[in-house]
Design goal:
Layout lengths: L2 H9 L2 H13 L10 E2 L2 E2 H6 L1 H16 L2 E5 L2 E3 L2 H8 L7 H14 L2 E8 L5 E7 L4 E5 L6 E7 L2 E6 L3 E5 L12 H4 L1 H20 L3 E6 L5 H16 L11 E6 L6 H18 L16 H27 L3 H6 L1 E5 L9 H13 L5 H7 L13 E2 L4 E2 L22
Antiparallel strand pairs: 1-2, 3-4, 3-13, 5-6, 5-10, 7-8, 8-9, 11-12, 14-15
Helix pairs in contact: 4-6, 8-10
């Protein structure tokens, strides 16, 4: 924080911040969501649309499960501040739970917010997510700085942008709020819902039908008696039916055809995948376009996760780390390497090439596989020749040329 931001943090009455915390703790019951507006859209949209629920679950769970670490010039660091951020960002949640909540908010409302509570030194004290439906970003006219207006229980609070983690979907020019993906999908969801309701009515309206065939010898009176007897049988949903001579009863087959419904579901899945920018295979679409799981995960990481992860990293680096820490080289980073490791054969080739080419140590490969390092020579970089430490004198290497050998002369 700069001097102005520190001054704002110090002069803001503590009871205002404590009110936000108190209301967050007392209003966190899920019972209050039932039948009400949730994230700006009726909660039934998220709870009853399997495809949207699947995408939001995949994104939020994947992001919150990624290792989140603090580095100093590529060296991993873990101190008291990092321990607080990971395990005790507030009294009720861990950091992975907060990231999960933020991502669900971002993927439904279009925006995810978390309030940064600081101690007297300006360092992180608590991190509190809150409902994005009650937040409005505004620009202060004189300073042109971004503030967040939070309405809670009829009261209004103002927080500077340096004290609010804000992750969002894309926004139009001049708009600080992200666009809700569910709002974008409203027409598609309405059409899909209409097709499902129509198909359900069609299935419910299907009843057994029959064909009555009369011989030419059946007179009018006997025909009426047969029809009346069959009507009684049909209305009573069974019983004994005597088939008179000259009368044939044949059931008419009526099967429900779900082709149109299947086509509609396919179109809806493609639209949801496009809006959330995920491969359509994640919604059970055809996977023939991907030759391997590595290729699929590479596309998912590059096109979907990387932009999302970068946004979180920028927010945390800017608003949780102090300026002097960033200047020294401190930064937060999600580790996505686990998603790109591939199967055992691909990992073996990756480590084998890295170790033999001298850009990864055997111990580093062991740690990537969650195995303890061995230390000693295993922590050093090697190069094939075949396989010597890089700092070894080349004259000490054994020669592989045919017909040459070391000669020791004696005096």
């Amino acid at each position: 924080m700069n001097i102005v931001q520190r001054a704002i943090n110090r002069v803001t009455p503590k009871f205002i911040k404590q009110t936000i915390i108190k209301n967050y703790q007392t209003n966190s019951s899920f019972k209050q969501w039932f039948g009400k507006t949730f994230f700006g859209i009726e909660n039934s949209t998220l709870e009853t649309n399997e495809n949207i629920f699947s995408v939001v679950s995949r994104l939020s769970n994947t992001l919150s499960s990624l290792p989140f670490k603090k580095y100093l010039n590529y060296d991993q660091r873990f101190d008291e501040e990092m321990d607080r951020l990971i395990y005790y960002p507030n009294k009720n949640q861990t950091l992975d739970q907060i990231i999960n909540v933020l991502e669900v908010s971002r993927d439904t409302n279009g925006n995810g917010y978390a309030l940064i509570m600081r101690d007297i030194r300006g360092q992180l004290d608590m991190l509190i997510p809150f409902n994005p439906n009650y937040v409005e970003p505004v620009l202060e006219q004189n300073s042109n700085e971004l503030w967040y207006v939070v309405n809670n229980n009829g009261k209004t609070y103002y927080f500077h942008n340096s004290d609010v983690i804000h992750v969002r979907h894309i926004a139009g020019n001049g708009n600080w709020k992200g666009i809700s993906p569910i709002a974008v999908l409203k027409n598609s969801n309405d059409f899909d819902k209409a097709v499902r309701e129509f198909s359900l009515k069609e299935m419910q309206s299907l009843r057994d039908s029959f064909i009555l065939t009369y011989a030419t010898s059946v007179d009018e009176e006997k025909r009426k008696a047969v029809v009346e007897d069959f009507r009684r049988f049909y209305e009573e949903n069974g019983g004994v039916l005597f088939q008179e001579p000259g009368v044939t009863i044949e059931e008419m087959k009526r099967n429900f055809v779900a082709t149109d419904m299947k086509i509609t579901e396919g179109i809806t899945r493609d639209r949801i995948a496009n809006v959330y920018n995920v491969p359509s295979i994640f919604l059970n679409s055809d996977s023939s376009s991907f030759s391997s799981n590595e290729q699929l995960m590479q596309l998912f990481v590059n096109m979907t996760l990387t932009p999302i992860v970068k946004q979180y990293e920028r927010e945390f680096n800017k608003k949780i780390l102090r300026k002097e820490e960033r200047v020294k080289g401190y930064y937060f980073k999600f580790n996505m390497m686990g998603l790109l490791r591939g199967d055992s054969d691909a990992r073996q080739k990756f480590y084998h090439g890295g170790i033999r080419d001298g850009w990864i140590a055997p111990d580093e490969a062991r740690m990537l596989e969650e195995m303890p390092p061995r230390g000693g020579k295993a922590s050093e970089l090697w190069i094939s020749g075949d396989m010597y430490p890089q700092d070894m004198d080349p004259t000490l290497r054994k020669s592989n040329k045919t017909g040459t050998q070391d000669v020791i002369k004696k005096d």
